[in-house]
Amino acid sequence: PNDLKIDRFRSTGPGGQSVNTTDSAIRITHIPTRMVVTCQDEKSQHKNKDKALKILRARLLDMAERGKHEELALKRKSQVGTGDRSERIRTYNFPQNRITDHRIGLNLHNLEEALEGNLNDLVTNLSEKLKTGSEI
């Protein structure tokens, strides 16, 4: 109620003298979003106001729902990524016995040890990169 601006005015269009003499049309503005709803369907100002409030409520709920959906989609996209080859993290090259971590530009030539669980060199270099504040 405090963030609504309600204007009353004369309807337009067909209807003759009754349209021209009574302020039966309603314009409701939701001030925070600047969303405007106008209703002049009914002869009664009260019915038009109720109808305009219902329309405004539905539009605001729809806008909030869309905002939540977009926020969720952005979070999902940031977690999943595009699946493009440019998003690769690490390459295991068996013929050359090499591991390449593309995030930090590190090449290690101890593939067998890494596959056995010895990832100390990789983890150390990655944590140093994080400590320096560099973007990975």
From TrEMBL:
Residues 10-26 form the Prokaryotic-type class I peptide chain release factors domain. Residues 1-21 are annotated as: Disordered. Residues 1-10 have a biased composition (Basic and acidic residues). It holds the Pfam family RF-1. One of its GO terms (molecular function) is translation release factor activity. Transmembrane segments: none annotated. Keywords: Methylation, Protein biosynthesis. GO terms for cellular component: cytoplasm. Coiled coil: none annotated. Belongs to the prokaryotic/mitochondrial release factor family. This is Prokaryotic-type class I peptide chain release factors domain-containing protein.
